[in-house]
Amino acid sequence: MNTSYSFSTFSAFVQSSLRRGWGRLFLLMFTLPTMAQMPSDSLVGEPEYRYKNLTQLWHNTSNAAGLSLDDSPNRGFASIGFNHRGGDYHRVQEGGAMNNMQFFTERYQRLGRYLYSYGKVDFNLGRTKDRSFADQYRPYNSNPYQSGSAIAGSYDHQDFDMVASVGTTDFSGWRFGLQLNYQLGDLSRLRDPRSRSQLLDYRLTPSVSYTMGGHTLGLSGYYDRRKEKMGPLVTVQSDATLTYYLFSGMEYATGTIGGYSSFNREWVNHQVGVAMDYGYRSDAFHTLNSFGISRGEEYAYGTYKYEPGRYFTYLYNVQSQNRLLTGSVLHQVDVRMDWQQGYADEYRQQLIITDDPQIGTTSYTYEKQLEFRKRYQVRTFDCAFRYRANFLNDAPSRLLQQATASLKGYTGLSIDTHKASNRHLLPLSSSDYSRINFQLENGISLFKQHLTADLTLGYSVSTRADLQLADDSSVLAQRVLLKDLPYYEANLLHGRLQVMYQFPLTIKKSRAMWFVKAFGDFTSANSAGHPNLYNVGFSVGLFN
User: Fold this and answer.
1) Residue 32 has pLDDT above 90, yes or no
2) Are 460 and 436 in contact (CB under 8 A)?
3) Which Pfam families does this chain map to (predicted)?
4) Would the pTM count as exceeding 0.85?
């Protein structure tokens, strides 16, 4: 991969964001996670870290005011790793083989007497091969007004995902918090026609909670702005037959020959949401239940603010986290459900050219002539259930007690289901698919907790895969939708094995718990040819 080009172009994108006033925001997001390089209160390893993750439920919500309710000790870790994905069980628009390098760090840190903080940085750099008809980040169950080339090629990606959260301690039962999410992305196609999609996404979430006895009520609201932008496409070699496609939902697309050099488009989404939380805890039982709702409106702009349409989304989610301590066993029951309702209005517009002879200028605007309401519709539903019996060393007498408890093993199961429906109206085309997954989960710590192993084994059943096309001879129908149908029809056998070895190491009088980790997962489909998918990787890092 041409890393010098990738880093230089992405650096220009970051610098452009900084010049637009986001410098302080970027520095704040980066500063808190880098505290992971500081020495911690005690030497913590993977078993202790997992126990603390199990008992700190507020961190799994958007309510930063709950950070002090979790009462986390100072802790964190940093790691760098590499993984490779291969196999032939994949969809057309997600590509095939992928190599990815990841740097990840997070930190829980108490700041003075009145503040708790959490910070995270996740950076990924990699390349995906054999991807087509997908020059943007979200090819599935999202805005239909996207674009791509029929020629499969390699894509380089660089993605930053940063989080900074701050919450106060108790003030007569009241707590306040603020969370900032910030994402940058760069997706570049390496084959003619060469595209480059740049992503900027940030979310600001203020929150408040009130505690009375063992009961806590929380409220949070957020504003999220997401912008993805593509400039003109370029070519290295001249090809008069090269076609670039603009999509409008399902199999409908418009192919352009030679006109891609003037193509540019941006997608700007404004989303607002609110969430409510209720928590109760006693010495042995802790439950936290959350409900959230949000609305988004995404604009798709072309040259001279041309709009092919507008996409609207409504998101709903319900989450319940429960922990019960019985002796040396911590029982975990988690349930989460997510619904998405989306639809796209389609516009027919006419270019209006206005000349002003007095000042010698010409203006270009698009005027809306027709509007098709809700012509493209998306519905998704996800539900996940997990139960685990977690076996503890040095089990505390009550939850959240600052003790030396650690996880020595667990056993459990999870069940999750996914449903998705896409429809294009007038003429009618539809795609409906769903599946349910069953998975057994087991983990153990061995050799005085120096070695940790995790094993999962599951089976995924396709419960529906239905495709109805008004025009099954179109390019998208033949080369994407019909090709992907066996992917949704297949039943899957899958498994994963992860092994981590940790060891204390002293460097320049600074002692920390280091680790090396390796993992591999495998998926085999029962469809024709028995396609498979595998992912292997390793990482090194340290707790501090």
Assistant:
1) no
2) yes
3) DUF6850
4) yes
